[in-house]
């Protein structure tokens, strides 16, 4: 029991802190490297390392056809689209701004549960949804943001990425995927890496030689692979099988704060008073969504997937 509690604590630290830092690392890397190429290299490398580690730990990499299909779908929803397109959008949106929009993930999950699973909404949930929408309006209504070229497109694409990630969260929580979360993560990453590579060539991205990369690109990509992918995403898959989806989504409280501070400190991004007000309203909405009484049944893994 104590070991399980420790693992859960470390897993939450990973998705809270490491994922909060990925906005900075992605922004630094995408300023120099093509976004789909960057994401493809990141996930293919991370997935390969995970497979090597899994074999060294004695885990079997065997997988059924259904598990493979589910892993490919999860890899697309989480990583190929949910992350790859998000990285592309960072070319047009500041890290702090993107992180605040991403904090709406619990709202998206709640609405998907209502739409797909026909779960009823409680009063706190409704208040949370309204606050989220109000905060979003305050955030995107800033003139200096909406007038920047490509910003509106970036915002729309980030919203679709959050929808994709939220759908993936609900799917993986009940899907038949490899029992070992480490192996499951590896298959999802390899699948996403292949899809992103195809997308990169389809959009005719320039694959810049590693010999031409700056030290910042190397550091950013290394951090994304080791911490953002291997540590955090493995922790994420682990938590989805141990804790309810909504509780895992509470990383949305912490990620924007870390992203805003790192963007301000390292990238000299401006944090306006209107953005701070929007952040307070949106995160309050997320709090209401996650603090409500459990009228909506929490999503638990089926016994065969434990």
Give the SSE map.
Blueprint: H1 2-30, H2 35-56, H3 65-81, H4 84-89, H5 95-102, H6 105-116, H7 123-140, H8 143-146, H9 151-174, H10 181-202, H11 215-242, H12 245-248, H13 251-266, H14 273-291
Helix pairs in contact: 1-5, 1-11, 1-13, 2-10, 2-11, 3-9, 3-10, 5-13, 6-9, 7-14, 10-11
Structural class: mainly alpha
Order of helices and strands: HHHHHHHHHHHHHH
Whole-number count of domains: 1
Low-pLDDT runs of 5+ residues are 295-306
What is the number of helices? 14
Helix proportion range: over 70%
Number of strands: 0
- Largest beta sheet, briefly? none
What is the average per-residue confidence, as pLDDT, rounded to a whole number? 86
Using only C-alpha atoms, the radius of gyration works out to: 19 Å
The gross shape turns out to be globular
Instruction: Give the N-to-C terminal Cα separation.
Output: 15 Å
Determine the strand fraction and express it as a percent band.
Answer: under 5%
